[in-house]
From TrEMBL:
Annotated residues for binding of glyoxylate: 143, 178, 259, 262
Family from the record: Belongs to the FMN-dependent alpha-hydroxy acid dehydrogenase family.
One Pfam entry name: FMN_dh
Source organism of this protein record: Colobus angolensis palliatus (Peters' Angolan colobus)
Enzyme Commission identifier(s): 1.1.3.15
Cellular component annotations (GO), alphabetically ordered: peroxisomal matrix
Protein name: (S)-2-hydroxy-acid oxidase
Active site: 259
Length: 363
C-alpha cells in the first residue's frame, strides 16, 4: 500500500491544477512549525484572510467580439521586460521547505522570465543565488539595519552582484505579533547568511542579530539615494498620504503591501488599498501589489493601476512541492490562468487592462 501511495504522489494523477492545490500539498507535507511560519498572520490573522477575501468581492466586466487569437502577457517593470506581470515577492528562509532554498527559486524565476525579489532573510548567500541563476532579473529587499555601514556594505554588494533595484521594507520597524511562531519558538532556530557585520562573522541567529532600525524616517531616504544608483522601491505603503510622500522623495516605485497580514493586523487588504495609492501617484512612478493573489482573475488587479503583482506564500508552496520545478509550475499555472482571463475579458495585451476596459464593481 505504501508503494502504491508513493507512486501516486509521483505520477501524473497527482497533478496540481491551481495554487490552492499547492497549499494543500504543503500543509500535508511540511512540519507544523514550518507550516505555521509560512501560513501565520499577525494577531487574529484578520488581514491575512482579508487579502484573499477582498478579491472575491470584485466582479469583472468583460468585453466581447474582440480578436483574442493572440494574447500577449508581457510587460515591463523599471524598464526590464518580464514574461507576465507575475513576479516573486521577498520571503525568507526558503531552505525551510527545500534544500537548495533560494537557489531553486532563482532558477525558476529565470526560467519563467520574471523578477525575483531576494529577501534580506535569505537562507542562501547572495553569491550562490546569483551563480544559480546568472541571467535572472533580481531585485533585493532590504530591512534597514541601525548600522549605516552595514546597510552600505550590503547595498554595494547587491549592486556589484547585478541586482537591478533596491526594495526597502517600511512596515516592519518591529516584528508583528505572530502567535504561531512564538508558540513554536521557531525564531531561535533560524539563521541569516547575509546579515553580517562588516567585520565578517558567521551566520547570525534570527532575532539574535542587531535589530531592524526603529528610527527610519522619510528624510533618511536621501542617504540611500546618495550611496546607490539602483532604483529604490518602497514596500509596505497602504495610504495615499504615504504614497504622496514617496513621490515627493523621488523614489522609483511603490509596492502596496501589508506584509501578507504578518505585521499590523486589521489594516486594509492590499487590493483595497491600491485604489487610493494609484489615485495620488497619477502615473508618476510605478505601483505594484502583493497580498492575496491566487488566480489569474486576481492578476487582473492590474486594471486598478498596478504594474504587476508579486507572489509570496504560493511560491513557497511550489518550492515545498518540487523545488525549482514546483515554483515553475506555480508560475506557469498562474500565467496560463491570467492568459485565459485576458482572453475572456477581451484584453489582447497588458496595456489594454485598464479601468475603462476591465472595470470592477464592488459588491
Amino acid at each position: 500500500m505504501e508503494d502504491k501511495m508513493g507512486s501516486e504522489c509521483e505520477g501524473p494523477e497527482m497533478s496540481l491544477v491551481c495554487l490552492t492545490d499547492f497549499q494543500a500539498h504543503a500543509r500535508e507535507h511540511l512540519s507544523k512549525s514550518t507550516r505555521d511560519f509560512i501560513e501565520g498572520g499577525a494577531d487574529d490573522s484578520v488581514t491575512r484572510d482579508e487579502n484573499i477575501a477582498a478579491f472575491k468581492r470584485i466582479r469583472l466586466r468583460p468585453r466581447y467580439l474582440r480578436d483574442v487569437s493572440e494574447v500577449d502577457t508581457r510587460t515591463t517593470i523599471q524598464g526590464e521586460e518580464i514574461s507576465a506581470p507575475i513576479c516573486i515577492a521577498p520571503t525568507g528562509f526558503h531552505c525551510l521547505v527545500w534544500p537548495d532554498g533560494e537557489m531553486s527559486t532563482a532558477r525558476a524565476a529565470q526560467a519563467a522570465g520574471t523578477c525575483y525579489i531576494t529577501s534580506t532573510f535569505a537562507s542562501c548567500s547572495l553569491e550562490d543565488i546569483v551563480i544559480a541563476a546568472p541571467e535572472g532579473l533580481r531585485w533585493f529587499q532590504l530591512y534597514v539595519h541601525p548600522d549605516l555601514q552595514l546597510n552600505k556594505q550590503l547595498i554595494q554588494r547587491v549592486e556589484s552582484l547585478g541586482f537591478k533595484a533596491l526594495v526597502i521594507t517600511l512596515d516592519a520597524p518591529v516584528c508583528g505579533n505572530r502567535r504561531h511562531d512564538i508558540r513554536n519558538q521557531l525564531r531561535k532556530n533560524l539563521t541569516l547568511t547575509d546579515l553580517q557585520s562588516p567585520k565578517k562573522g558567521n551566520s547570525i541567529p534570527y532575532f539574535q542579530m542587531t535589530p531592524i532600525s526603529t528610527s527610519l524616517c522619510w528624510n533618511d531616504l536621501s542617504w540611500f539615494q546618495s550611496i546607490t544608483r539602483l532604483p529604490i522601491i518602497l514596500k509596505g505603503i497602504l495610504t495615499k498620504e504615504d504614497a504622496e510622500l514617496a513621490v515627493k522623495h523621488n523614489v522609483q516605485g511603490i509596492i502596496v503591501s501589508n506584509h501578507g497580514g504578518r505585521q499590523l493586523d486589521e489594516v486594509l487588504a492590499s487590493i483595497d488599498a491600491l485604489t487610493e495609492v494609484v489615485a495620488v501617484v497619477k502615473g508618476k512612478i510605478e505601483v505594484y501589489l502583493d497580498g492575496g493573489v491566487r488566480t489569474g482573475n486576481d492578476v487582473l488587479a492590474l486594471a486598478l493601476g498596478a504594474r504587476c503583482i508579486f507572489l509570496g506564500r504560493p511560491i513557497l508552496w511550489g518550492l515545498a512541492y518540487k523545488g525549482e520545478h514546483g515554483v515553475k509550475e506555480v508560475l506557469n499555472i498562474l500565467t496560463n490562468e491570467f492568459h485565459t482571463s485576458m482572453a475572456l475579458t477581451g484584453c489582447r495585451s497588458v496595456a489594454e487592462i485598464n479601468r475603462n476596459l476591465v472595470q470592477f464593481s464592488r459588491l
